[in-house]
Structures are given as structure tokens and as C-alpha cells.
Design goal:
metal-binding, three-stranded antiparallel sheet, single chain, about 40% helix, transcription
Length: about 650
Amino acid sequence: HPKTATPVPSFAITIREVLSVDKQVQIKQRMAKQFVAKESVKVSDGAAVKRSKSNGDMSVKKVKVEAMDPSKASSAVVKKEKKDKFELTYRSRCVCVFQELDGVDVLIFTLYVQEYGEMCAEPNRGRVYVSYLDSVAYFQPKKFRVLMHQQVILGFLDDAKMRGYHTAHIWSCPPLKGDDYIFFCKPDNQKIPKAARLRSWYSKLLQGAKKEGLVYNISNLYAEYYMKRKTALELPYFEGDYWPRLAEDLIKQVEDKTKPPTKPSQRKSSDSNAATAAAASSDYSTIPPDLSVPATTSTKHQSGKHKGEVNMDPIMQKLKAILEPQKEDFFVVDLHPRCHKCNTGVINRPYWILKTLVPSPDGINDVIEALKKAKSAAVKSSMLPRHYHHYYCASCYDSSKNTLQSRVDASIVGAKKAQDIYAAVQAANSDPMTFNYAGHDILDVKYELQLTSSVSSLLLEGEPPRPNLALEPDTDELMPCEIFDTREAFLMYCQNNHCQFDQIRRSKHSSMMVLYHLFNQGTTGFTFTCHKCSMTLTSGKRWNCSICLNFNLCEGCRAKTKHEHPLHAFQIVSIPQPKHKTSAEIDMHNMEGSSILLDTASSSRKKNAKKRPGPKKGKGKGGHAGSSKKAKMDASSQPPDDPALATPAMPFP
């Protein structure tokens, strides 16, 4: 009966973005020097091309660098350091998932991401990075918990794709035992996935997204950068990622290896020459050539030394030894088609697809796989049948149209041969793996290829191609948040306020605290100091910079100070005090009253001592004073019977 049937429980879910601020990657010293040197080379090359065009000469000539006066070297370095500044800015976002359990919203999932938009410099431009994610196992129904996590991540990737970002990066790294990423004190029965299980979880998630057409290609950092012979400066540099942690050490190792030994005559140089040399060596342009330039122009001795290496960049070679064992943990996901020839993302423009068709019937695929093993070792690997799924932009397709079409025509002929051989295998009623292919021509057997054109999914039907500037400007309002500013800030907030998630009742209380401070910014109890006047901010507004570390200004200094980054206003709310005092506060108040009474009695005693004739000053005063002090302590240690004797005893003169 409908009245007696148990109603189906409903679990309301709220997905809320709680943080959206601009931040800056904290680039370490050696890596910053490498990036600045690369940018300076680009600027100088562009200036040389511009000068050659203005002179009517289209050839780019090498610019001769004249020696600088040693007396002006140090000042030039200081000016250059101020002028040359390399920044990687990004939009930091935090997404939280709440679920209503027993009428209370409970925080169950948190995701931190980084978005490097059009204003960011290379190599980070147009990329998104899944920084951290964490959850607690209270989602209901439990069987849909994994699905909820996946849908939140896929929703973010889909949103990033629609806004023009071309690549997503994910580092699969589970926390160590006892460590917390975001949530403080998880349930004891919640298991932490191992590295292999977490990697498999991400792989299944991305493979499903690829089948749905959300992503186009799934690779890893090792295959995309080391195997494709890219330099270390082309690796994306994300805040908190694995590569920035290693970059400084690897660059230092290469610099120490390539640094020439110091001659004895150089050690005896004067202090002025040494200072000049140090200033010149600190110049961003004086970088060992093999740190930023591939070693294709190296000597025969160096090429022989690194024989067999795919990537000749010295830093990438050192990174290979560390990265190769765990290369599957670093996912590189193409959100848009990437041209196979020029390696650029195709966004808001038409493109062409060269892909292998699935053989029909299925037995043809078994025949082709058997033919691969039957071919002799003398046959080149490029002649073996392979699967293709390549994308080409409009310009690359126009330049190689004839080659691609001839490859498609040859594949049709090769696929027809495969069908004939399959018919012979079927007629002999034999297994494709054991069939004798000696009497058949197997050199030109191939999979059938198809070359088709397509249009970016961001374009509406009939809409013309958009310009190359595909990234949409981020028009979202900045939404700073004190407790979710970083994952460390939220973790510290939970630790300081005892917001634990190890039990459902504690999770409810912690979530209520988080929601209160989320909607009442400035009530967290943190104290801030003005960066300009060093005054503690207790009222009014504080103006915070999300890019600079611990930068806050009061309202007065904000009007007088010009800052290079945007400032966000936080209302400082005084924390309300309880109306009734606790027993501990009452005891503290009584102790303060007693101390005031003691000070009053002591001052009156000193006044009376001045009026009375005292003993002459002598060496015996110390012992007398000590005994009186002891008597005072003994008298005060026993409770007096008369309330009038509750005051300390007055010492006799």
C-alpha cells in the first residue's frame, strides 16, 4: 500500500565553486633564469628580423655582442633583472561538493584546479592542471560515489574544453599513509588507494571520456616530451607539480658538470675583478649553451658519448632516469585535436582526420596480425601494417594533401589483398596463426585508411572559423576565500579549529563551521598585519593580493600604495564574545583582582615605611629581608581565620 511503503530517500547534492583567484607560479631561481634567457633570445631574434626587413634584407644575421665595460657591468645586471621578469599567472579554482544527509549539508568532495589562460606565457598557455582532489566516504548511495567523483572531474574538463583550453595534465599520486591532502582526519575504514589502483582509476575515467568524444588523445609526460625530443624549457611548469621539484637539482647537476675548472691564476685575481666576474656571471644571458639548446650541434665526441639516447637535452636525459619508471602516472590529455605535423591544437577551425578503419569481418584482423609475425626481419618496420589516428590542421593538410591521398589509395589496395588472403585461409579451414603464407604476396598488405574532414565541436552549425585566439577571456568575477585559498590553508584551518571528518557527526559539525566561515569572510580568527605600516588589522577592510605571499594592506595604505596585482577586499568582522563568562574566565578575573589588591597593599606599605624611622643600612639587611620573606610566605600559606587577616603581613621595620 502506498501509505505503508517506505519512501525512497532523496539525497540533494550541491556543487559549488568556492574559490576563483589569480595566482602566480613561484618559479625558483635557476629555472627562472632559464625562462628569462629563452624569452630574451626570442626578443633579440624578433628585433633582428625587424631590423633586417627595414633595411631590405630578409636574411637574419647574427648580432655581434660587444664587450661591456667592467665598471658598468654590475649596474647593467641590476637594470636587466628589473626589466626582465618572467611570470606564469593562472586562475586557481576550488570546487566543493556538499550532500544533504539527515537534513544537514556535509562536505564530501573537494577539487583544486589551475587554469593557465591566454595571458600566461609559454609553455603553460592554454593548459589546465588538476592539482589536488580529496573526499570522505559519506556519499549516499555508496555505489554511486565513484560515479560522482568522475562526473565532477569530467564536468571540469568539458568546461575547460568549451572555453578553449587545449591540454589537461593530471599527476596520479596517492597520499602517504597518515598524510592528508585536503580533509583532516578521514574515517578509519576509508581505504587509501595504492599507486597502481589510482592510476587505473584515472585511466578508465579518461578512456571513457575518449569514447564519449570529450577528449581526443591520452598520453603521458614521458612520451610527449622526452620521446618527441623536446627540451626542458618546453615542459609545463605547474605550481606544486613533480617537475618543478626536480628542476633546480637537475639544472645544478648540469651546471656543475659543464662548469670549467678554475685555474690557479684566476684564484689570485683582485676583489674588484672577482666582483665584476660574479656580476657578469649572474646575468641571465650567460647560461651554458647545452641547458636550453638541443645538442644537435654538439661535437662528434659528445654525440658518440650519448649514442642511443632519444633526447639529447642534458636535463631531459637526467629526468628520464627518474621519470621512466613512473611515466604512466603523468597523464597528458588533449581536449582538442592536435595536428600530427605541426603539433598545435586545432580549436575553432576545421581539420582533417586520417584513421584506420576496423577490418570486417573480424577474421581479417587476425590474418594481418599473423602476417606481421610471418614477415622477415629484413622488412622495415615502417612497411608493417599499422593503426593510424592522426589529425591535420588546414595549412598542414594543404601542404601534404597529395601524400596523404596516395597513402589512402595504397591502403585500399593493401586491404583488398588482406581480404583475398583471408578468403584463402577460410577455404583451407586453417588457423590464421598457423597458415602457410609462402605462396602469397604479403608485402603490401595494409589496414584500410580513411581521410575525412571535420569541424571543431565549439563551432555552431554554419558558423565560420574563428581566429587563432581560441581561448575565451575569463570574465568570471574574482572570488577570494580565506579558508580555501590553498589546500594547505584549508587543512590548517581544520587542524586549528578541530574540524575533523573521521565520524559522520563530526563531519556535520565541521561542514557547518566551513559553511559559516564561507558566507562570513573574516571570522576565522586569523590576524593580519598591514604590509606597509605594520599595523594589526582589527576592523574595516583588508586588501589582499592573491599572487604575492602574505600581502595585505589597510584601507589607508591601500589609497596611498600602488600595487602591480589586483587587490581583493575582505571585510574584517570582529568575533562576537559570549554574554556569560565561563568558569575559567571567572577564575582568571578573580586572580587579576587579587593581584591588583596585592599591588595596592605593597604600595601603601612602602609609603608607611618611608614615614617611620628605619634601621641603618648595613650588611645584615639581606638576612633580615630573607627571613621576613620566609615569614611572609609561611603566613600566607595558611588560611586565616579572620577575614581581616587575609591581607599579606606587613614586615616590621
